[in-house]
Amino acid sequence: MKHFYLITLLGCWLMSCKKDAVDAFGETSYVYLANNLSDSSSVKPIEYSFAFHPGANKDTIPLLIKLIGRLSDEDRPVELAVDASNTTALPGDYELPGPNVLRSRRAFDTIALVLHNSDRLKTGKFKLRLFLNESTFFRLGPPGNRYIDITFSDMIARPKWWNEDMERLFLDAYSDTKYRLFIEATGIADLTGATETEKRAYAIIFRDFLARGRENGEVYVDEHGQINVSPNLL
Amino acid sequence: MKQITIYSLLSGLLLLSSCYKDKGNYDYATLNKVTILIDGDANYITPRVADTLHIDPRLIYRGDTLRASTLTETFAFTWYCNDEQISSSPVLDYPVRKLTGARPYLKLKVVNKNDASTFLDGVTVDAIPAYLTGWVVLTKKDNRSIISFIDPVSFEVNADFYTTVSEKELGPNAMELKEIWAGAGITNPGNILIVRNDGGGNIELDGITLNAISNSNNFFLGNTLPPDFRPRGEFYMWDYTLMLDDNGNIYMRKHVDNSLTQSGVYPNKPMFIGGGVQFDKGWDGTFLSGQTLLYDKTQGKLFLASDNGGAVLPVNYMPGPPVPPGTTLINAMDKELVYVGRLQQGRFTSSYYLVFFDGTKYYQQKVMIMDQRFTVSALFMGETPLGAGTANAQSVFCQLPRIENYMFYSGGSGNKTLYLHEQGPGMSSEYFTFDSPIKIITAAQNNIMGINTHDQLMVALENGDVYILGILSDQLADPSKRLIKKIVLNQGLPVSGMYKTGFGYYQM
C-alpha cells in the first residue's frame, strides 16, 4: 500500500514536468530575443569594442526580437528592461531610445541599443543585461531567449590572425596602438580567413596610411618605437 | 618382351621423324622497301590554322626519291588523321582547321599494288592558332569602340571581333590595346588587354580564342573599387601589375602565382607616393626589363615602377658629371614628355628614348634606367632635337625596341607623311606618304632567320585605312618595295594598335 502511494506521488511529479508548450498557432503571442533570423537557439552574449570603430562616440546595436504567434495589424510594445543586479555599466553608458515595439505585420523586428563611448571604456569592460518582461501583448518565449548580455569596452587585444607569419611577412610586431591604426587605415579589424594577397593588400594600405600621415606631420610610435610594417612586405 | 622392343622401336622412329628438317622449296621475291618523307624527315609540321595543307610526300623507292604524285600506278595511298581516313589521294590537300584533336597525328599508308607490301609514316601537326600572331587595331565609330584582328599573312580582317565573340559592346571609352604575358608563363601565348577609361574596367582577352576571360574590376581588394575609379593604364610586369587611374592614382598588386596574368588583388586605396605626386601617364618597359615608367606632368618628374620589389621611385640622374646645360631634366622637366620609346635590353636595366615637346619642337633624350632596388638612376646618353621641320603637334612615334637605329614618326603636311629617323646619324627621311592623317604607327616583331626582330610596320590613318609597310633592309633601300598591303578597314578612327607577337619567350 505504501508503495502504491509512492508510485502515485512520483507519477504526479512527473506529470508536473510537462513542457510549458508554446502555442504557436493560437491566440497567444510570444516574443523572444534571437541571434539572427535563422537561429532561434538560446541567445548568445554580444561583445562589442569601440576600438573596432575608430572615431565613434556612440554606436547602435540592433537587438533582434522574434514573434511566435499571429501577426498583428498594429504596432505592439515590447517590454525590455535592465537587470541592474547583472549590470556593471553605468546608465550613461547606454540608452534604449525606443520605441521598443514589434511593428505591425512583422514576425521579427529590432530594438535599438545605443552604446556610448568614454575614456572609462578604454580601461575596462562593462556588462549590460537586458531582459524581456511579459505584457498584455506578449508572453515570453523560451527561457534561454528572455535576456541578453552585452559586454562593451573601448579595449583592444591581439587577435589570433595577427600571428607570427603576419608579423614576419606583413605587419611586424603587434601593439594595441598599431592595431587601432590598422583598423583606422583599412576599415577592417578581422583578417581571419583572408588570403595572402588580401593580407598583403591590407598591409600595403596600412603602410601607405602611415607614410601619408607622417608626411602630414603625424607621429606613430608604440612600445616598440616607430610603427612600421614588416620589412619583408614587398 | 619382344612386343615391348617393337613398340619402343616404333616410338623411336616416330620421335626421330619429327626431327626431319622441312626443306620446302619456296620462291621469295625481293621486297623493295619504301621510305616515306612527309615533310622532310621532320616529326612535326607547324602550319597556321587558317592554312590548307598541301603535302606531296617524297618516297625513297628502289634508290630513287620520287614525289608520291608520280607513283600512283605503283602505289595506293591512304591518309589518316588520328586513325580516321581523310584522303586516298597521293597528294594531301586538306584544311588544317578540319583536322581533329589538339595536336593531330597525320599518317600516310602506302601500299604497293604489285605485292601488297605496306609502309607507314606520319607527322604531328602542331598548328599555329589563328590568332596567335597578327595585327590588332582599336578604332572608334559611332560612339562604339571596335577591335579588329588582321591576319599577318593573308591580311584577312576579322572586324569587330569582340562584339562577335562575346556578344557584348566594349563601350565608347576603350583607349589602348596591349599584349600581356604572365611572368612565369612565358611559354603561354600573350593575351590582349583592352584598357577602358570608364568604370567598366579593363578587359583581358584570351590570346588564342579572343574570348574575354577577365575584367580588372574583379581584382580589387574586397571586390570594392576605389571611389571615382576609371583606368587610364594597366602595366603588366612579371611579379607585379600596376593600375593607373584618371585621378592620377596608382595601385600595385603582387602576383600570388606569376604563371597567371590575373593573380593577386589590387589594394582599393591609392598607393602613397610622397610629395603630392600624381601620375598623368605611364609607359611599359619591355617585358624583360621589369620596368614601367610613370610621368608626373604637374611636377615634371619621371618615376619608375619596379618589378624588383614593387616600389615606385623617382628617377634621378646618376651622380657624376653634370648633364649639359639646356638639357631637359628628367626630375624637373620644362617640356612635356609625350612618348617613351623602349629598347630591348636587360632586366632591371634598360634604355629609353624620351621624346619631349615644348609646343613647337620635339627633343629626344636617351637614358639608361637602372633599378637599384632602393634607388633608381638614369645614365644620361644625350639629347638631340627630333623631327625639326617635319614633326608637328599631331605627330605620333614608334621606336623599334630591337633595332635601336630606327624610329618612325608622322609629320609633314597634314601629318600624312611617315618619316624614318635614324638614331645613328641623327637623320630623318621621308618613308611613305598617305592620303589621310596618320593616327597610329606600330611595329611587328617576328622571327626572321632565327632572330626576333621587326619586319613590318602598321600605319593606321584617320580615314580608317590601314597600311602594312615593309621595313627590312631591301625595303628600306628601295621605296617601291615598301608597301606590302593596303587594308580598307573602315571601322572608324584608329585609337590604338599593336602586333600580337605570340609566346612570351619571344620577349626574352
List keywords for this structure.
heterodimer; A: 234 residues; alpha+beta; Immunoglobulin-like; 2 domains; 4-stranded mixed sheet; 4 helices; 13 strands; B: 508 residues; mainly beta; Methylamine Dehydrogenase, Chain H; 8-stranded mixed sheet; 5-stranded mixed sheet; 3 helices; 6% helix; elongated
What's the helix and strand layout?
The complex is a heterodimer of chains A (about 230) and B (about 500).
Chain A: H1 2-16, E1 30-33, E2 46-49, E3 58-68, E4 76-77, E5 79-82, E6 94-95, E7 101-102, E8 108-116, E9 126-133, E10 139-140, E11 147-153, H2 164-171, H3 176-186, H4 196-215, E12 221-222, E13 225-226
Parallel strand pairs in A: 1-10, 2-11
Antiparallel strand pairs in A: 1-3, 3-8, 4-7, 5-9, 6-8, 9-11, 12-13
Chain B: H1 2-18, E1 34-37, E2 44-45, E3 52-55, E4 58-61, E5 64-67, E6 75-81, E7 84-87, E8 92-95, E9 105-112, E10 118-125, E11 134-141, E12 144-150, E13 157-158, H2 161-166, E14 174-180, E15 191-196, E16 203-205, E17 212-215, E18 231-236, E19 240-245, E20 250-254, E21 281-284, E22 291-296, E23 301-306, E24 312-317, E25 336-342, E26 349-357, E27 362-371, E28 376-386, E29 397-399, E30 406-411, E31 417-422, E32 427-433, E33 438-443, E34 446-448, E35 451-453, E36 456-461, E37 465-470, H3 473-477, E38 483-488, E39 493-500
